[in-house]
Specification:
seven-stranded mixed sheet; Aminopeptidase; globular; Diamine N-acetyltransferase; single chain; GNAT_dom; acyltransferase activity, transferring groups other than amino-acyl groups
Length: 158
């Protein structure tokens, strides 16, 4: 299946439906919830959080959050950092993750970005193989939380 998605602003009207999007319980140690993501966005405005619900038709199937065009500091990588990407457990395995990243890459290119950072917890069940298959490469860095830092050269992705 080739997932057809759209990125939708989170509003009071759809917030509860978006918060209900959850990864599989076995993935919870790798990916924070949407609700936690909103909390992190509120607590870290200097990270310039940009987030969207991911819809297929009228159904929320995922969530994505980035640091958008921030000035990098020793504590904040960027200017673009994929902070959160999750696909609802009931919608996984249908190509949504790749579709979300493809859409995000297109938006970043339109904004003039040339690279996108992300990080992930290593271990069995980690999203690292997914990111590697998409084109992210390890930078050799590990953050203070033990997460592996990955970098996607936006010029290398069709």
């Amino acid at each position: 299946m080739s997932a057809q998605i759209r990125l939708v602003e989170v509003t009071d009207a759809n917030r509860d439906a978006v918060i209900a999007v959850r990864v599989h319980p076995a993935q919870e140690r790798f990916v924070a919830s949407v609700e936690t993501s909103f909390k992190h966005a509120r607590e870290n405005p200097e990270a310039k959080p940009w987030f969207r619900a991911v819809y297929d038709g009228d159904t929320p199937v995922g969530f994505v959050m980035l640091s958008w065009n921030l000035v990098p500091t020793p504590d904040l990588r960027g200017p673009y950092f994929l902070w959160r990407l999750l696909v609802d457990a009931g919608h996984q395995g249908r190509g949504y993750g790749t579709a979300i990243l493809t859409e995000v890459v297109a938006l970043l290119r339109e904004a003039g970005a040339t690279e996108l950072y992300t990080s992930c917890v290593p271990g069995e069940g980690s999203p690292q193989p997914f990111y590697r298959a998409f084109g992210f490469e390890p930078t050799g860095e590990v953050d203070d939380d033990g997460e592996i830092i990955l970098l996607l050269d936006l010029g290398s992705r069709p």
